[in-house]
Amino acid sequence: MNTTKMKICSSCDSEFSCGDISVETKCWCNDYPPIFNLSEGGDCLCPICFKEACEDKIDAYVETITPQNAPKNKAISLPKTENLIEGIDYYIEDGKYVFKTWFHLKRGTCCGNNCRHCPY
């Protein structure tokens, strides 16, 4: 049974498919960190606008992190996902993955490898 529906992005007015989270098949947006409250922005955003909104919200949060408050950050308590998202968890530079501050915050500790974006 197809449980997707077509929606209009509340930001850019483009049409996109949205999964029905009331059934086993979850929507594509469930692959992103659960950092938005449902009451925060009206209706759904398309994949492009949603990713940009996540990046903006995460970047604003990351700017508040210091080595002193990093061990008690919000990202540690979010549900763990196996999927990494380019632009949120990492970017690619010269063919190599560079993990962003958000990735390190989710991990919860410093790995000791002198990572470029380590918040600890």
What topology emerges from the helices and strands here?
Layout: E1 5-8, E2 15-18, H1 47-62, E3 90-93, E4 96-99, H2 101-107
Antiparallel strand pairs: 1-2, 3-4
Structure description:
The protein has 2 domains: about 1-55, no CATH class; about 65-120, no CATH class. It has 2 helices and 4 strands, in the order ββαββα. The protein has helices at about 45-60, 100-105, and strands at about 5-10, 15-20, 90-95, 95-100. A two-stranded antiparallel sheet has the order 1-2. A hairpin with a 6-residue loop joins β1 (about 5-10) and β2. The termini are far apart. The relative contact order is 0.14. This is Cysteine-rich CWC. InterPro entries: DUF5522.
Quick structural gist:
About 20% of the residues lie in helices and about 15% in strands. The protein is of the alpha+beta class and about 120 residues long. The strands form two sheets. A two-stranded antiparallel sheet has the order 1-2. A two-stranded antiparallel sheet has the order 3-4.
Top keywords for this entry?
two-stranded antiparallel ribbon, 2 domains, 4 strands, alpha+beta, 2 helices, 120 residues
